[in-house]
Each structure stands twice: as C-alpha cells, then as structure tokens.
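New to this. Comment on this protein:
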Amino acid sequence: MKIILIISIMFFCNLFAENNYSTKSNWLLETKTNEQKFKKIQKQFRGFDLAMVEVGYRFNSFYFAIKDKNYDLAHYQLDKIKKTIENGIQRRPKRKNNSEVMFLNTQYRAMYKALSTKNLQQIEKEYINTKQLCNACHIAEKVPFIHVIDPIYRWQPIQ
C-alpha cells in the first residue's frame, strides 16, 4: 500500500514538473509600451461596477457599526463609501450626476450629520433614507435588479 502511495505521489510530481506548472505571471511587465501597460491597468480597474463592490463591502460594515453603536466606525465607513464613489466617477463619468444628486451632495451629508448626533432614532431614520436613495440610484442607472437590503451576516470580524 505504501509503495502505491509513493509511486502515485512521484507520478503527480513528475506530471506537474513536465507541464511547467507555475502561478508566475508577468502580464504587465512583459507588455512592451507604456501605452499598452496603461490600457491593461485601466482594464483591470474597470468601471463603476468594481467601485460598487467595495461600496457593498463597506456598507456591510457601516450597517453593523450602526447596530453596534460604534459611530466612529460608521463615520469611517461612510467616508470610505464616499471616496469609493468619487473614484468610481473618475472611471465612469456618466455616473456622476446621479451619484452627486442622490448621495455625494445630499444624503452623505445628512447621514454624516445624523451619526454626529449619536441619536439612534435619527441615525436609523437617515440610514433608511440612505438605503432608499441607493435603490433609487440603481433604478435611475438602469440596474433596478440591484436592490440594497439590510445585511444579515458580518463580512468583517470587527465591531
């Protein structure tokens, strides 16, 4: 039995060695011109969708920070959400108008002010408004199938 195991291990080691299996990739370093490199980098950053992935991640932490009454963390995540949306606008300028009208120049300030009061009733009211405006923005941007709900599980081991 041990001999079969040893032979099997040797076979698989040899198989991977012969196929030059490697995780090494120089996809950017081997690109010839700076223009080609920048195009590849820009492609990796994508558009507004990748910014929204980060917003969703931070929104989860923001929600639980409010539930935990950790208003410093909630402020921190709200600021990072704002920055992420601003960065997303750089990559996809056509998202600017709705982002500014529904969040950056309006609801961000209202939510920030509510968090500063540390009044849970006011914070929860503005949280609901924030979530509703996220969904309104998704409708305006023609992605109504993306519907923001209250998270059930924490994605980060922080409180």
Residues 18 and 70 are 55 Å apart (CA to CA). The mean pLDDT is 89.
